[in-house]
């Protein structure tokens, strides 16, 4: 996973934890801010860092610099790693929130989005398409319905991710459709739409909002 893919994974984690109006900024010229998000009427400027060592002061300084530019009240740095003592001190003085690897794992567990058969390293490094597909499979498994992901496709015209699944024998389309709202709540999505027939015979399509087209084009 490269840095930009990690930003989308972080955006999905934020969405699953109650953040709204999430926007991933451009790859370049982002003024130290990768994600803009809103929670409890507070606008967050988030810097995402995928590192294999501890983060120093630079990540804190970057997000501080981008706060005013994006009109945000709260700055935060989100990472799959940890922070140096100096970085923590600088963040404390400037009221910047630090979300390290341990906090990211708690964010995933909060909504039950965790595959116990995988290590946390794999979960935190998962791209958004795989993240959504795994969440769908886990949800239906909890409902006693076995499904397999047949494919994913990003629909640019609607900013939705189409996930095609193959349900086990005997599962009716109505069984899937009746669980879509519960699935949306589980995944932290605004909605999930069941479409049928889907592209491939024997599969069911699930459309999930996933705004990622503008940033990908940039």
Can you lay out the helices and strands and say which pair or pack?
Layout: H1 3-16, E1 20-24, E2 35-39, E3 42-49, H2 57-70, E4 74-79, H3 85-93, E5 96-99, H4 101-110, H5 120-124, H6 128-142, E6 147-155, E7 160-167, H7 173-177, H8 180-187, E8 193-195, E9 204-209, H9 213-217
Parallel strand pairs: 3-4, 4-5
Antiparallel strand pairs: 1-2, 2-3, 6-7, 7-9, 8-9
Helical residue percent band: 25-40%
Biggest beta sheet attributes: 5 strands, mixed
Mean pLDDT: 81
Radius of gyration from the alpha-carbon trace, in angstroms: 18 Å
Number of strands: 9
Would you identify the regions where 5 or more consecutive residues have pLDDT less than 50? 111-123, 213-218
Report on this structure.
Helix 2 (57-70) runs parallel beside helix 3 (85-93). This protein has helices at residues 3-16, 57-70, 85-93, 101-110, 120-124, 128-142, 173-177, 180-187, 213-217; strands at 20-24, 35-39, 42-49, 74-79, 96-99, 147-155, 160-167, 193-195, 204-209. Residues 111-123 and 213-218 have low confidence and may be disordered. The protein has a five-stranded mixed β-sheet with strand order 1-2-3-4-5. A four-stranded antiparallel β-sheet has the order 6-7-9-8. It folds into two domains: 3-124, Trna Endonuclease, Chain: A, domain 1 (3-Layer(aba) Sandwich); 128-217, Threonyl-tRNA Synthetase, Chain A, domain 2, CATH 3.30.980.40. The chain is an alpha+beta fold and 218 residues long. Helices cover 39% and strands 25% of the residues. The protein has nine helices and nine strands.
């Amino acid at each position: 996973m490269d840095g930009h893919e990690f930003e989308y994974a972080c955006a999905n984690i934020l969405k699953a934890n109650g953040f709204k109006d999430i926007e991933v900024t451009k790859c370049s010229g982002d003024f130290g801010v990768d994600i803009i998000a809103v929670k409890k009427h507070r606008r967050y400027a988030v810097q995402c860092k995928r590192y294999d060592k501890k983060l120093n002061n630079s990540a804190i300084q970057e997000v501080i610099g981008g706060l005013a530019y994006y009109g945000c009240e709260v700055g935060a740095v989100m990472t799959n790693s940890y922070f140096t003592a100096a970085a923590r001190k600088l963040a404390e003085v400037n009221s910047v929130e630090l979300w390290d690897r341990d906090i990211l794992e708690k964010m995933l567990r909060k909504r039950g989005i965790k595959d116990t058969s995988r290590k946390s390293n794999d979960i935190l490094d998962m791209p958004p398409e795989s993240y959504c597909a795994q969440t769908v499979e886990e949800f239906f498994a909890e409902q006693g319905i076995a499904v397999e992901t047949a494919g994913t496709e990003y629909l640019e015209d609607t900013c939705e991710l189409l996930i095609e699944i193959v349900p086990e024998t005997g599962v009716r389309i109505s069984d899937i459709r009746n669980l879509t709202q519960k699935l949306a709540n589980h995944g932290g999505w605004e909605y999930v739409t069941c479409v049928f027939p889907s592209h491939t015979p024997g599969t069911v399509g699930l459309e999930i909002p996933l705004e990622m087209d503008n940033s990908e084009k940039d």
